[in-house]
Amino acid sequence: MAQGIKLFAGRASKDIAARVAKSYGISLGNVTVLEFSDGEFQPSFEETVRGQDVFIVQSTMAPSDNLFELLLMVDAAKRASARKIIAVIPYFGFARQDRKDKPRVAIGAKLVANMLMAAGVDRIITMDLHADQIQGFFEVPVDHLYASTIFFPEIEKLNTGNLIMAAPDAGGTKRANSYAKKLNTGLAICHKHRKIANEVAEMTVIGEVEGKDVILIDDMCDTAGTLTTAANLFMEKGAKSVRAFCTHAVLSGPAYERIENSKLTELIVTDTIPLKKNSSKIRVLATHELFADVIHSLMENKSISSHFIVS
Predict the structure, then answer these.
(1) CA dist 191 → 101, 169, 171, 213 (Å)
(2) What is the mean pLDDT of the chain?
(3) Is 90 exceeded by the pLDDT of residue 73?
C-alpha cells in the first residue's frame, strides 16, 4: 500500500474517485458531509491527513454547491495539517467565463482559481479546459490532461481511410485541426451565429464532407444544440456518417432529446461528469486509469508529458 497519500471524493465524483483509488492501489478515504436543514453543509475527513499528500476528486459542474464543497474540503485538509493538497477536477466548471467578452461581466474562471488558491490548494489536475489560458490564472502548478489519449484509440478503430475531422464551431478549430494532423485526415468547420446563449441562429459548413465519415471534436456537450445542428447539416451535405467525441457530458436542458432525434450515429464522452440517464446513442469512456497514472507519476516525480498528445 502506498504511504503518504490519501485520496478523497466529493459527492459529485464518488464513482470516478473510487475507480481512481482502486487503479492506484489504495482505498478511498472516508468523508462525511453534515447537512443542515437550511441547505448548508459541512464536509469532514473521518481519518487523519496530517503530513499526507491529499488528493481531492471533485468535478465542479452545476450546481455551484459542487465547487463550494471542493473549497470546503481543501480548507478542511489545510486546517488538518495535510502536507500537500491536490485538487483533481475532472471537469472544471465556470471555464467558459475565461475573459470579458462583453462589458460588465465577471471572469468566472479566474475567480474560481483565486478561491481555490485562497482555500489552500497546492496543485490542480484537470482535463480538457474550455480555454487553455485558464492554466495561467493559477499561481500553483496545473496538470492539464487531454482526453485525446483516450479518444485516439477509439477513433483509430473507426478509421477506414474515409475519416474527416470536424469542429462544430470556429472556437474548436484548433482542437479538431490537431486531431486531423495526428491522424492525417482532412478538416471541416462549422461556422455558427448565435443570437442568444445556447441557441444557434444559423450555421454553414466550410469543407468537403460528401461521402466522408465525419468525426466531430469538442471539449463539452451542453445543450447539444450546436452539436446536433452540425451533425444534421453534415448529413445534408452528403456525409456518410457523423460521430461526435466530446470530453465533458454536461448534457443540460433538451440535450438528451436532441441527441436521440439527431442524425448523430454516436456521441462518445468521458466519465468526468456522470450521465443523468442512459441513451442508446451515448457511449462513455473511462478516465480513471489516466488520472491514477498521473498521480503515480507525480508521487514518483516522473514526467507526465506523454499524456499531452493534443492541445
Answers:
(1) 18, 5, 9, 19
(2) 92
(3) yes
